[in-house]
Automatic annotation (TrEMBL):
Start and end residues of each ABC transporter domain: 3-261, 329-542
UniProt-listed Gene3D superfamilies: P-loop containing nucleotide triphosphate hydrolases (3.40.50.300), Valyl-tRNA synthetase, C-terminal domain (1.10.287.380)
A GO molecular-function descriptor: ATP hydrolysis activity
Chain residue ranges for the region called Disordered: 547-588
Origin superkingdom: Bacteria
Listed SMART domains: AAA (SM00382)
Identification of the protein by name: Probable ATP-binding protein YbiT
The organism of origin for this protein: Duncaniella dubosii
Amino acid sequence: MSISINSLKVEFSAKCLFDNISYIINPKDKIALVGKNGAGKSTMLKIIAGLQKPTSGNVAMPRDTTVGYLPQHITVSDTSTVIDEVRSAFSHVDDMKARLDEINHQLATRTDYESDAYQELIEAMTYLNDRLAMEQSENFEAEMEKTLIGLGFLRSDFNRPTSEFSGGWRMRIELAKILLRRPDVLLLDEPTNHLDIESIQWLENFLITKANAVVLVSHDRAFIDNVTNRTIEISLGKIYDYSVNYSKYLVLRQERLEQQMRAYQNQQKMIQDTEDFIERFRYKATKSVQVQSRIKQLAKIERIEVDEVDTSHLNLKFPPAPRSGDYPVIADNVGKAYGEHQVFDHATFTIKRGEKVAFVGKNGEGKSTLIKCIMGEIPFTGSLKIGHNVKIGYFAQNQATLLDGELTVFDTIDRVAIGDIRTKIRDILGAFMFGGEASDKKVKVLSGGEKTRLAMIRLLLEPVNLLILDEPTNHLDMKTKDILKQAIKDFNGTVIVVSHDREFLDGLVEKVYEFGGGQVKECLGGIYEFLEKKKLASLTELERNTIRPLTDSNNTKEPQTSAKGQTESNKTDTPAPAKKLSYAEQREREKRVRKARKKVDEAEAEIGRLEQEISEIESIIAEGNPPADIYDRHASTTKQLENAMSLWELASMEFDEISK
C-alpha cells in the first residue's frame, strides 16, 4: 500500500513552507525526515496523518490504510490502568468485525453482481478477512507485555493508574498503543526523547523487524542511522530524496551542495556578463537587436537557488577548570529510599580528577537521584565525599523550564553575570546564536533548544572543575550536540553525564556506571564497549538458563541439561555428550573462533604499544627538563591504556565463550 504525496504546497502568512512537493512512501520504506529547525518536518507528518490541510495538493492513500502518529508533545486525560489503556489499542479489531458484518449484509441483499461497487465490496471483504486472520493469530496479552517491558515498564506497573506516571512515561504508553496496532505507516516525531538506552535499542529492533513503513523525525543520529534506509531532506520549500541512511546522506548532500554552488557561481557570472553587455550597448542602434535578444534571454533564465546552509556557529568553550583534589567524588555504600521503595543501595565508587563518566540505565533507576545526593539536595545513607576545592557546575534535566519566562534573553544572563563578564554579555549571546534582536526576545517565546542553550550559557559564567550534566542534549539539534560534545571533550575538569544518546556519549566518556536493580555497577570503557559487554552478559545468562530435555532410545526421561551440557540433576556430575556439529556448523564455529582470537591479539598488541609509549614518556620525564605537554601526554596515554585493557577483557570473554 503506497502513499502518494502530490504537489503539496503549504503557506504560512505569505511564507512558503512547501512548494509543489511530490514523493511516494512505499510499503517497507524506513524514512528519516531531516532539515533545519523550522523547515517543516513536523508539519509534513501532520499533513500525512490527516491532522493538517495543505494550501494545495493532496495525500493519496488506498482505502483502509492505517496510520499511527506520535507527536512530540501530547496531552492525555485517561484515568485507566496502564494495561487497560494499552489494551484499547486493539479496539480496531472490533471495528473491523463490525465493518465485515456490514459488508456481508450488503452482499447478501444486493443483486448487482457485475457492478464495480459489488466488486469493491468483495475486495474489501477479502482484505478485512485477511487482516482479521492475521490480527487474531497473535496473542494480544503476550504482545502487550513484550511491548511494555521493551519500553521500560515493569510488570508491577501494569495495574497502576496512568495518572501516577510522568509525561515522559505517558508518552511511552501512547507509543506502545501505536506500535501494537501495527499500522501500515508509522509517523514518529522525536520518539526517543523520553526513552533510555535500552528502550531505544528495543524500539530500533521493533521498527527494523516488525514495522511496515516508517517516517520519523529524530535528532538521535545513531537511532536514525540504524533504523532508516531512505533520507528525505526538506530545504527551502523543496525536498531532496536519497535512498540511503543518514550518515551516507550527509556525504551525498555535501557533494550536492558543492555542485549546486559551482552551478550557481557559473550562472551568476553569465548573468553579470549579459547585464554588462546590455548596459554597454543599450543605446547603440547597431547593437539593438543583440541587446533585445540578451534581455529576453535574461528574462527566461531559471535562477539557481543555493540551499540554505546553517552558517551560524556556536562557539562553545568551558572556562579552564581550577585544580581540584585528586578524587572529586568518593561514594561509599551510598543508598537512597523513598518510603519502602529502595531506589539504589551500597553504591561504592570513586571518580578521579579529569575523568569523564556516564550514568546510564532505565528511567527511574536512580541516575538523577544520585546526582541530587552529590549536589546535597536530598538526604541519603552511607558516605559521599566531595573532594578538596571541587566547584560544581550543574545542568539539571529540567534546567530550561526553570528559567523565568517573563525575562528577556539578555536580562536572564545579566542577572547572574558578575564582574568584567558583564561587559561581554552581548558577545557571549552572539556566540550562542542570540545575536542582534534575538537577545531581546522573552524567554517564554523561545523553543526548547533555545532555552537549553540559554541555560547552558548560565553554566559557563563561573569557572568550575566538576561538570554534572543531566540529559544536556534534549531538544538540541545534531549540529549543536556535536559542538557541545567537543566542548566537553576539551574541558580539562571532571565530567558526569547522564544521557541516553549513544552517539553523544561515544568517544566522550571512558567509564560507564550502570543503574539497575537497586545497584550501581562500574564498567570501564566507552558506551559501545559497555553495550557490547551487556550483550555478552545477557547471552551468557541466556545460555545458563536454557534447558533442553534429552531422551534415550527407549524414550525414558533423562536429567535435564543446560546448553553448556552441565547436568541439572543432583545425582550425577557427568556432563551429557555434546551434540555433534555438522560440517557447515563446524566451519562457522571455527570462523567465529578465529575472529574472536584476532580481536584478543589486536587488543594485546595495542596494550603492548601503549605500555611502550608510557615507558618512553616516563624516561623523558626522568631525564629532567621535559616538554610542557609531557604530563598531559602521560595522562592521555594512561587513559588509552585503561580503555585498551577493558577492550581486551571484553574480547577475552567473547573468545572464552565461543571456544568452549
